[in-house]
Structure formats: C-alpha cells, structure tokens
Amino acid sequence: MSQSQGSGGRAGGRVIAPQGVLPFLFVVPPAISAVLALARGDVGRFGQAAGVTALFFLAAWLIRRGVKAAGTNRPFPGRLLGAVAMALATAGAAWFLAGHNMIVSIIFGAGALAGVVLAYGCELMPSRGEGLSADAAEVRQIVGEARGKLERLMRARYRIQGAPEITQKLDGIKGWIEKILALIEEDPRDLRRARKFLVVYLDGAGEVADKYVALQAKGEGASFQPRLEALLDEMEKVSAEQHGKLLENDSFDLDVQLQVLSDRLKKEGVA
After folding, report:
1. What pLDDT sits at residue 97?
2. For an engineered disulfide with 109, which of 57, 91, 234, 236 has Cβ 3.0 to 4.6 Å away?
C-alpha cells in the first residue's frame, strides 16, 4: 500500500520529506542578513534580503501545502509552484546577497528546483499512489468481484481430470490475476487501466474452464483441449503484458490485444 506523504516515505521512487517542513530553514539566513543590513542602515541591502526572505517563505509554504494535498481529493500544485519559487529565491540569494554573477546564480536556482522535485515530487509527474484515484469503495467492490470470479476459476480447475497441461496454465493465469489485483489495491488508479481487462479476462477464463469441465463430463474434452490450450496460452500472454503495462502506467497498446482476445472468446462461444 502507498504510504501517506504526510508521514514521510516513498512515492514512485522519490523521497517525500516529512510534512514539507525543511524548506522553512532556508528562510533563516536571508532573514538574518536583512536584520544585519537594517542595523547597519543599509536600506538597499535590507530590501534585497527581505525580498529573498519572502520568496523563501513563500516557497516553503507552497511546498508544505502541496505535500499535504498530495494523495487527497483536494489537489493543489504547491510542490510545483514551490519549486519555482525556491529556484527564484535561491537565484536571488546567490546574485543579490552572495554576489555571484547571473550564470552562477541561474545554476544555483536550477539546482534548487531539481532538489525540491527530487525531495518532494511534482504534480506534473504524479507517482504511484499519489493524486486523484478511483473511489475506494468502488475499488473494493470491483476487486471483491474479481476475487469471486477467481474462486470460480479455481473451482473449475480442481474439477478438471487428467489434463495437467490445462491445470498448469490455469494456475499461471491465477497467479497473474492475483498480481494485477495486488497492483490495483496498491494504486487504485490502475483500476481505470485494468477495468476492461478484468471484464474480458476473468469472465472469459471462468467460462472457458467451465466449458471444458462440462465437455470432459460428456467425454468430449479431448477434442476441445488443443483449442483450449492455445486460448489459455494467449490469455496468459495478455495477462503478463497487462501486468507490465500497469507497472509502467501505460495502457496504450493493450486495447487491440484485448479486442483480439475478446473476439477469440466469442468464437469459442464463451463471451
């Protein structure tokens, strides 16, 4: 399961720093510089330091808001805006307060931008378990239904006699289904990408297995077995590719394969 960004943890390989508190530390140095400039009566320097301090504070506040909003139903692009503000504040501090030239200041700003994105993520690059997702109740319902269909598949599997190749392929299908359901539970957004697959795949697999059991009972299983093995091979291949697509957050090329599988199931009279 995805960990809450509020408590610190990982999201899509990026470290989420606790509650977005650390950026507020960057406010301290320019604030001290502003106080010292004011004490010396250096109004120009005070204005520069105060401006940089305000930018750092704005950046920290935006990042904190963005971290808190991540994974909720109230999205706020705080981390993105905060990263930009942090870059501007850092470049300003390097140029106005540290006396670096423009090129060096820009480099410092770019480094600050990259640091914020690496530490807190960015709304433009949502990570697994982050951002808007399918409704939790809907996910529980669909995953529950899928597990019920999986049980149906396994009941048919244990009624098959004398066909180890078939039962082995059904066991492989069961394994892929469980992996896919685990991904959906980990990241409910995967439900959108996997919904069509689950409908075509699970219903089809159960009906194919039931049909084979019925044919075996009539003594006609041998004639259907070669077609069934080829069909199960195709289903296992598609399921492995579906699992890979979910891991990559990609569903572009799978619809065509699912349509081919659906047509094949209809040809066998099970969809």
Report:
1. 94
2. 91
Q: What is the pLDDT of residue 6?
A: 38
Say which residues have a Cβ less than 8 Å from residue 256's Cβ, sequence separation at least 6.
Answer: none
Give dist(CA 120, CA 68) in Å, integer.
11
How far is 126 from 70, CA to CA, in rounded Å? 9
- pLDDT value for 41: 93
**Under a CB-based contact definition with an 8 Å cutoff, are residues 16 and 120 in contact?**
yes
The residues of the chain scoring below 70 in pLDDT are: 1-20, 71-74, 125-136, 200, 249-271
Pairwise CA distance, residues 270 & 207, whole Å: 6
- Taking a C-beta distance cutoff of 8 angstroms, is the pair 117, 109 a contact? no
Kind and range of the H or E element at 14?
Answer: strand 14-16
Identify the burial level of 13 via C-beta atoms within 10 angstroms of its C-beta, where 0-12 means exposed, 13-18 middle and 19 or more buried. Answer: exposed
Distance from C-alpha of 105 to C-alpha of 150, rounded to nearest angstrom = 59
Degrees (nearest 5) of the Cα angle 196, 200, 202? 110
Instruction: Say how far residue 43 (Cα) sits from the centre of its chain.
Output: 50
CB 235 within 8 Å of CB 204: yes
How far apart are alpha carbons 106 and 108 in whole angstroms?
5
Token pair recorded at residue 113: 């931008």
Please name the amino acid found at residue 242.
Q
- Cβ contacts of residue 234 below 8 Å, gap of 6+? 261, 264
**What is the reported pTM?**
0.45
Cβ neighbour number for residue 255 with a 10 Å cutoff: 11
Parse the chain into domains and list their residue ranges. Answer: 5-120, 136-267
